[in-house]
Amino acid sequence: MTDNARSRAWFRIAVVYFAVAVTLGIMMGGSHDHTLTPVHAHLNLLGWVTMTLFALISMAHPAITKGPLATAQFWLHNIGVPVMLGALALRLKGYAEVEPVIGLASVAVGVSVGLFAWLVLTRLRAASR
Ligand code: HEM
Ligand code: HEM
User: Fold this and answer.
1) Cβ(34) to ligand 1 under 6 A?
2) Distance 118 CA to ligand 1 centre (A)
3) Total structural domains in the chain?
4) Where residue 102 falls among pLDDT bands split at 50, 70, 90?
5) Domain that holds residue 73
6) How far is it, in rounded angstroms, from Cα 20 to Cα 60?
7) What spacing in Å lies between the alpha carbon of 96 and ligand 1's midpoint?
8) Is the shortest distance between the CB of 49 and ligand 1 below 6 Å?
9) Half-sphere exposure (CA, 13 Å, Cβ side) for 57?
């Protein structure tokens, strides 16, 4: 396992999502208002869980962190996830007009996931040499 700046960045961002998501979960439990359940679920799953996996896979295979495609993947995910979940929270609280923002941001996250898959599929062999 090779420590690297991208992997450390993913770990740091992931724990922030974890803290925010669990705080929201506790607030939901305490208030008995579960309106934001999908936001809580995806903060945990697209934030904490997915980003920790990005961090661990980046440590195991630093080759996937190099170059413009990896940088694009990093930023698409880090912009897409908070915009998507922020807009989703507004949508669930009644602001229907934010729906196109959720759609656009979720496509950004989808492209990030596609890029990540591409990086893994094309670079693992080189990383293990
Ligand atoms: C102290 C920590 C946590 C609290 C208090 C909490 C609380 C909650 C609450 C109140 C709900 C709504 C349940 C419902 O409406 O049926 C929920 C749903 C959910 N939570 Fe958490 N949660 C916590 C941690 C986590 C973590 C760490 C994860 C994932 C890594 C997670 C993933 C989910 C998912 C996926 C759902 C949606 C489940 C479904 O659709 O049935 N939660 N949580
Ligand atoms: C751009 C990425 C994603 C989009 C647009 C998306 C969209 C959705 C939608 C529309 C639902 C139904 C919500 C509802 O019925 O209220 C859902 C539920 C769920 N998704 Fe995702 N999802 C994404 C990524 C993921 C990922 C990466 C995971 C797991 C690692 C995940 C796990 C779940 C779970 C556990 C539920 C059920 C919990 C809930 O009802 O909130 N999703 N997702």
Assistant:
1) yes
2) 31
3) 1
4) very high
5) 5-128
6) 27
7) 24
8) yes
9) 16
